[in-house]
Design a protein that fits this description.
Layout: E1 5-6, E2 13-14, H1 30-52, E3 57-65, H2 77-92, E4 98-105, E5 110-115, E6 118-119, H3 139-148, E7 160-168, H4 178-183, H5 186-189, E8 205-214
Parallel strand pairs: 3-4, 7-8
Antiparallel strand pairs: 1-6, 2-5, 3-5, 4-8
Helix pairs in contact: 1-2
Length: about 220
């Protein structure tokens, strides 16, 4: 089936809080407290739009990093977007079909929710179409993606844009697919070490779009 494409939303409102990465420390840990503070603040920023806009919805987060912070080393965009989109959906009952993340050296971060606007596919991008049958929680899932990403090479050092579209069932919590999918294409991103196949240099992704559509 054809995958619908969505335009990048305009930058949202300036945030008074620094975006926080996904965190797996125990509840009550300072990092968890900082994440919860950010997510609560982000929910307050987005609720007016979520209460007014009709489906389909798009989310955009612009992460501002200090000028002394290496822009393309760590600070993986999917680790900012996953807890944010999950929190907003659970708290408001509104789901997103298109989620964007951008990171830049900037004193400010921005966040916004808009209507998702259909656009034509951009022919400038290299496109890979893959089909998976394994559970996303298994190594086999990543292997299936890796085996189908062919005829390419590791892109030269520097920033990359990554756009991923998923075709899923209507009950799938599709954000759970983001991280294992991004961990797979080291043929494009490169590896942090030669003997670490599922640890790509995904910090070099400075603009990411993840989107989904349901199977007919």
């Amino acid at each position: 089936m054809d995958m619908p494409m969505y335009a990048i939303p305009q930058p949202g409102k300036q945030l008074g809080l620094q975006p926080r990465l996904a965190d797996w420390d125990a509840a009550g840990h300072p990092s968890q407290i900082r994440l919860e503070k950010f997510l609560s603040g982000a929910e307050k920023v987005c609720r007016p739009q979520l209460d007014q806009l009709a489906d389909p919805l798009a989310l955009r987060l612009d992460v501002g990093l200090a000028g002394t912070t290496p822009l393309l080393d760590q600070h993986d965009l999917d680790n900012y977007l996953f807890p944010l989109s999950t929190r907003l959906t659970r708290a408001t009952g509104r789901a997103f079909v298109s989620v964007w993340g951008i990171k830049r050296h900037s004193p400010n971060s921005r966040l916004g929710v808009t209507a998702a606007i259909h656009v034509q596919a951009d022919s400038r991008y290299q496109v890979f179409v893959v089909r998976t049958t394994a559970s996303s929680g298994t190594t086999a899932f990543k292997q299936q993606i890796d085996q189908q990403v062919t005829g390419t090479h590791v892109f030269p050092d520097g920033p990359l844009q990554l756009h991923i579209g998923f075709v899923v069932g209507p009950r799938r919590h599709w954000p759970n697919l983001w991280k294992p999918t991004i961990d797979a294409p080291s043929k494009i991103l490169g590896r942090t070490a030669p003997n670490r196949p599922w640890h790509p240099l995904d910090g070099r992704i400075d603009a990411a779009r993840v989107q989904h559509t349901h199977r007919p």
